[in-house]
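Take the subject:
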Amino acid sequence: MSFVNYYFTPFTMLTDEQIGQFQEVYRKRYNKEISKEDAYDQAVKLIAVVRSMSQPMTLKEYDSYQRHRIRIFFRHVGRAFVQYRKDRGKDRPQEL
């Protein structure tokens, strides 16, 4: 089952009272009224985000994340080093 199917299908059923509470919170926060359908859609998406953030990473996901961080770090360091080498040559006097 994909992420989209799991989080954005009727696994998350909200009562009319809960949707009304969401509309009230939304109105107080943004000073704007939203329809019941929009409130339901936004509430389900909010629940999906909270669910995905509250689940711990698997070891495989953690390793993938760490590899990504290392790749990004060395990509930036490499670019900075190349720029440093270019800039360093500008300060040197030109040889005849």
Summary: Helices lie at 3-7, 16-30, 36-54, 59-91. The two ends are 69 Å apart (CA to CA). The mean pLDDT is 83. The chain has two domains: 1-55, 57-96.
